[in-house]
Write a structure and sequence with these properties.
Structural class: mainly alpha
Helix content: 55-70%
CATH class: Mainly Alpha
InterPro entries: RNaseH-like_sf, Transposase_Tn5, Transposase_Tn5-like_C
Protein name: Transposase Tn5 dimerisation domain-containing protein
CATH superfamily: Transferase Inhibitor Protein From Tn5, Chain
Pfam families: Dimer_Tnp_Tn5
Number of domains: 1
Strand content: under 5%
Distance between the termini: 36 Å
Number of strands: 0
CATH topology: Transferase Inhibitor Protein From Tn5, Chain A, domain2
Largest sheet: none
Shape: globular
Length: 103
């Protein structure tokens, strides 16, 4: 239920507040991990816009970002959010900010 609510919420908010910071909706671990995996470069110091990050997450769910394609829908966001949660968990466990003490 929470994933369904969040996917609809992100779809709506990213359309109305496209230029807002993505950190209004995504945690730092979420957007940085997705950025690094999808773009294959280090995340920028300044967070991307909400619409830019929403499109990147939706691409993980099958959204094709073309010039004449509309904004992402709830299904591609739902599938993208599932992949994002896995990436964020790995980022927190093994990423740059993770505790260096492994047993």
């Amino acid at each position: 239920m929470i994933i369904a609510w969040r996917s609809l919420y992100i779809c709506r908010v990213s359309r109305t507040h496209a230029d807002a910071s993505c950190e209004k909706v995504y945690t730092a671990a979420e957007w940085k991990s997705v950025w690094q995996v999808v773009r294959k470069i280090r995340p920028p110091r300044k967070p991307p816009t909400l619409m830019e990050m929403t499109k990147i997450v939706a691409e993980l769910g099958g959204y094709i970002n073309r010039k004449n394609t509309g904004p992402p829908g709830p299904q591609s966001m739902w599938l993208g959010l599932q992949a994002m949660h896995i990436m964020a968990a790995c980022w927190m466990a093994f990423g740059p900010g993770a505790d260096q003490k492994c047993v």
